[in-house]
Amino acid sequence: MTSPDAPLPFGRRYRRLMFGVIATGLLLQLLLALFFLSIGHAPKPHDLPVGLVAGQQTAAITAKLEEGGSLAVTPYADKAALARAIKQRDVSGGLVVGPTGTTAYTAGAGGNLQAATLRAVAAQLDASAGKPPASTTVDVVPLPADDTNGAVVGYVLQVLALGGSVASLGLGRLIPRAPRSVRRGVGHAAALVAYALASAGVMLAVLHGFGVTAAASGGRLYVDMALLSLALTASTAGFVALIGPAGALAGAIYFLIGAPISSASLPWQFLSPLWAGVGASLPTGGGAAVVRSALYFPAATDGAAYLCLGLYAGIGVAVILVTNALGNRSNRTSLRVFDIVTPIAGRHRA
Questions:
Q1: What are the TM regions of this chain, as residue ranges (predicted)?
Q2: Could you read off the pLDDT of 261-295 as tens digits, one per residue?
Q3: What is the DSSP letter of 44?
Q4: Phi/psi-derived region of residue 55, left when phi > 0, alpha when psi is between -120 and 50, beta in every other case
Q5: Cβ(50)–Cβ(72) under 8 Å?
Q6: 293 neighbors 302 (Cβ within 8 angstroms)
Q7: How is 127-167 classified by DSSP, letter by letter?
Q8: For labeling, which of 14, 107, 291, 319 is most exposed (least CB within 10 Å)?
Q9: Phi and psi (nearest 5°) for 123?
Q10: Average pLDDT over every residue of 49-59
Q11: Comparing 68-72, 325-329, 332-336, which segment has the lowest mean pLDDT?
């Protein structure tokens, strides 16, 4: 009879390892397939914010458009007010109902899916009223010639998320070579800030080289990308400081899970409320919002997105500073949560 501690024969050990690898790979594949198909299969709008200029018909048309919960309608007095709301990202687009038909007011820079939805709704309104389709579309915020498919926001997000993960892992291996102290914590935080600033500078230079930033504010775009980079790297480093190397999985989650539900390619209104909420609460979601606004919607404010990024960046840096300040007794690569709780509990017992 084989002892529990005795090494397995080569054949059994090989088969167990092989089955374990296959099972893990299949489980991961199943989970990713379910995730991606659940967010990208036949997307439909949920409370898509649209504006409406319809004069005396406003109440009747609003009731018709909001049936089923696909659209959330906001009335406006005239075309100028509607266009202003679109530029401020208060609504995704709008409809102007006139005597000859319905005109769709779109924002191509906000996403082709929203624009296509508005054009389809305009055609349906005309058909229900017995009018021929007006076939008129006004693109209030069109995509520039250097980004005709609107993919730049997604590319920026993926590059910064991947680069931030690599930087967090690299610093995580380098920093523990120094004794844990307040000085080491400040150095680690300073390195993350320096990386975020440099990362944003490189990304801005590349975007400028391809002409993407021609109509954007370079200063605002640089600050937004630096904040996004710091939110990604600092929060990942904070997880590593608290739970050890497994915390680096946060970077993988941002890249694999956060990017697809960030609204960079698929607007939140076309996701389920669950995925939309998760996407908006991750730094990738906040980053996609501020980068898109910096590129195409300078009048937008994005307060919630800035708050999201600020919390991830600020809490991540704070965790790094606190764990280093309280961890002078240990040079381990991370400070577990109980390393903080134990001395505090001891003082209370005393």
A1: 17-39, 152-171, 192-216, 303-326
A2: 999 888 999 998 889 999 999 999 999 999 999 99
A3: -
A4: left
A5: yes
A6: yes
A7: HHTT-----EEEESSPPPGGGTT--HHHHHHHHHHHHHHHH
A8: 14
A9: -65, -40
A10: 94
A11: 332-336
Residues 6+ apart with CB under 8 A from 159: 203
- Residue type for 296, please? Y
Higher pLDDT, 340 or 24: 24
CA nearest to 47, candidates 64, 63, 71, 67: 71
Cα-Cα-Cα-Cα torsion 31, 36, 38, 44, nearest 10 degrees, comes to 170
CA-wise closest residue to 116 among 266, 290, 225, 316: 266
CA R_g for the chain: 25
DSSP 282: S
pLDDT band at 217 (very low <50, low <70, confident <90, very high): confident
End-to-end CA distance of the chain: 53
Q: What is the 3-state secondary structure (H, E, C) of 165-180?
A: HHHHHHHHHHHHHCCC
Q: What is the mean pLDDT of the chain?
A: 84
CA triplet 182, 242, 190: central angle to 5 degrees?
40
Phi/psi for 259 (5° steps) reads -60, -45
